[in-house]
Every structure is written in C-alpha cells, then in structure tokens.
Amino acid sequence: MKLVIAVIQPDMLNQVREALVEAEITRITVSRCTGRGKATDEELVYRGQVVPPTLIPKVRLDIACNDDFVDICVKTIMKAAKHGKNGEIGDGKIFVVPLEQVYRIRTEESGSDAI
C-alpha cells in the first residue's frame, strides 16, 4: 500500500479529479493549502526590510492506493495536472510514500481491504 500525495494548481483540480474517476480511482481527500516551491528565489526588500516571498495557494490530494494502482494514479495526475503540452513552472509535485496500515472505522477492516 502507498500514499500518493499530489500538490497541484487549484485551477487543475476538476480536470485531475475527473481523470482519476475515469481511471477508477474515486477515493481521494482534497485539502486547500499554501506553499512555495523553487519557482522564484527573489528576495524582496521593502523599506529596508527583507520580506519573505508570499505563499502560493495550492491544492493537496491524498490518495491511499493498493500497489497495483500507484503507477496508474501517478501517471493520471501528471497528465491531467500539466498546463499545456510541456507544462509550466509551478504545476506541482507528486510524492509516493509507504503506507504501513489502513483501518476502516465502520467495519474495522484493515490493510488493502480497508482502502
């Protein structure tokens, strides 16, 4: 089992969600978040004070998947979240991390059955 975490542009959420549904991945958690990548390393100076760069609104998707669906999930997100043919700076990132255990509270199932 893996946890796929994708941080994408807010305007791409519907497109990514629809692509995931087409790929039969329907159980996702969506959170609004802010963050900063390496898009610009500019240091702003305002009235003699160094001002840290502002945080940019993003959307975070958390998707717990069985091992068979990880590649499908990642490829679907990469294709749907990209702006244009070649993409743009700030299109996002995808992290895949091991998922030790999952429990469904209602039925008390665990492991792959709980996903």
Main features:
115 residues; alpha+beta; Alpha-Beta Plaits; four-stranded antiparallel beta sheet; two-stranded antiparallel ribbon; 2 helices; 19% helix
Task: Describe the structure in brief.
This protein is an alpha+beta fold.
Question: How is this structure best described in words?
Answer:
The strands form 2 sheets. The protein has a 4-stranded antiparallel β-sheet with strand order 2-5-1-6, covered by helices on one side. Helix 1 (about 15-20) runs antiparallel to helix 2 (about 70-80). It has 2 helices and 6 strands. It has a domain at about 1-35 and about 55-60 and about 70-90: Alpha-Beta Plaits. With about 120 residues, the protein is an alpha+beta fold.
Q: What is the fold's blueprint, element by element?
A:
Blueprint: E1 2-8, H1 13-22, E2 29-35, E3 44-46, E4 49-51, E5 56-65, H2 70-81, E6 92-98
Antiparallel strand pairs: 1-5, 1-6, 2-5, 3-4
Helix pairs in contact: 1-2
